[in-house]
Write a structure and sequence with these properties.
Residues 1-16 form the signal peptide. It comes from Python bivittatus (Burmese python). This is Carbonic anhydrase. The protein is of the alpha+beta class. The chain has helices spanning 2-17, 34-37, 149-152, 174-180, 240-248, 291-319; strands at 50-51, 57-58, 66-68, 78-82, 87-90, 96-98, 104-113, 126-127, 134-142, 159-169, 191-195, 211-216, 227-232, 236-239, 279-280. The protein is built from six helices and 15 strands. It is elongated, with a radius of gyration of 24 Å. Bound molecules: 2-acetamido-2-deoxy-beta-D-glucopyranose (2 copies). One 2-acetamido-2-deoxy-beta-D-glucopyranose binds next to helix 3.
């Protein structure tokens, strides 16, 4: 009995060490249990966040993010994989990001989404409590300092991820079909397909100058706190039919396993901000003013009204 127990412990430790421990979003292996097998998931600088715009600090020195090579990702095919948790596209290292504290090279992109039945949510990040139907993550590693993603993902300054909200629009976004058109060939977990290279830039919003920036983590186990996040203000747009394809094409289970389970609702709930600050590259708040500026404007307007009222009152008194 003791031997079996020891063997079992050794096995589960080996699995956790290799990143192979089973995890899901709901149920007994769900996100509330991630910290048991993956202690970093319980730390204090986790992602995603519900970005509270009244707490965001505007930093006018934050430059636009500049992707390099995104329009022409080489001639070799890219690999699209259903890994049971998401659909992931491999990206060549010669796609790079400038405008961050280091130069970062691309590794992969993947998606998070909700379900077509439960229309609430899908994105991981939220803004003032509001979720979008899906979110794209483009994962990069610090190639100035580290050899590859495997080394960089453990380092505090190892990764940079671009977060792009996806919103539903009346027209189709042809760039997304370079991915969505292949989902029916990777229906089950662990299936992959080769995809012809296409302009990855077209998956991003037009405006790369306006974004939120903070230090956080991977949003899936092992939840390493190694990510410098850039979450763009402007969403990318896809059609309702395109969103539905994302929500209905994939299973989180392997081919032949019954019952099969649709791959939906693969988003982590917002984590506590704790001691962190979210910065923005643009003045936040309605009509582009920060909360402080809005209060100042209201006070000035009120004082102005009072002045006009007093002037009118004095004038009326004199003419009487
Ligand atoms: C990443 O780089 C390290 C150090 O150079 C090397 O040992 C390792 O094999 C590389 N891993 C991959 C997946 O290329
Ligand atoms: C992220 O953490 C590093 C190291 O502590 C710090 O220098 C940097 O200012 C932080 N960046 C943001 C956006 O908070």
């Amino acid at each position: 009995m003791l031997l079996v127990l020891t063997l079992w412990q050794a096995l589960s430790q080996a699995l956790a060490a290799s990143g192979g421990s089973h995890w899901t979003y709901e149920g007994s292996y769900g996100q509330a249990h991630w910290p048991e097998k993956y202690p970093d998931c319980g730390r204090q600088a986790q992602s995603p966040l519900d970005i509270q715009t009244d707490l965001v600090r505007y930093d006018p020195s934050l430059p636009p993010v500049e992707p390099e090579g995104y329009r022409n990702p080489g001639s070799g095919s890219l690999t699209l994989t259903n890994n049971g948790h998401t659909v992931q596209l491999s990206l060549p290292e010669d796609l790079r990001l400038h405008g961050l504290p280091s130069i970062y090279s691309a590794a992969q992109l993947h998606f998070h989404w909700g379900s077509s039945k439960d229309r609430a949510g899908g994105s991981e990040h939220r803004v003032d409590g509001l979720a979008f139907p899906a979110e794209l993550h483009v994962v990069h590693f610090n190639s100035e300092k580290y050899a590859n993603l495997s080394v960089a993902k453990h380092q505090p300054d190892g990764l940079a991820v671009l977060g792009i909200f996806l919103e539903v629009d009346s027209v189709e976004n042809p760039a997304y079909n370079h991915i969505l058109d292949h989902l029916d060939r990777i229906t089950y977990a662990e299936q992959e397909v080769a995809v012809a290279p296409f302009s990855v830039r077209e998956l991003l919003p037009a405006h790369l100058g306006h974004y939120y920036r903070y230090n956080g983590s991977l949003t899936t186990p092992p939840c390493y706190q190694s990510v410098l996040w850039t979450v763009f203000r402007q969403p990318a747009r896809i059609s309702a039919a395109q969103l539905e394809k994302l929500q209905k094409s994939l299973y989180s289970t392997k081919d032949g396993k019954t019952p099969s389970e649709l791959l939906v609702g693969n988003f982590r709930v917002p984590q506590f901000l704790n001691q962190r600050v979210v910065f923005s590259s643009f003045p936040v708040g309605p009509s582009g003013y920060s909360a402080g500026e809005i209060i100042a404007i209201i006070i000035v307007v009120l004082l102005g009204c009072l002045g006009v009222f007093l002037a009118g009152w004095i004038l009326a008194k004199r003419t009487r």
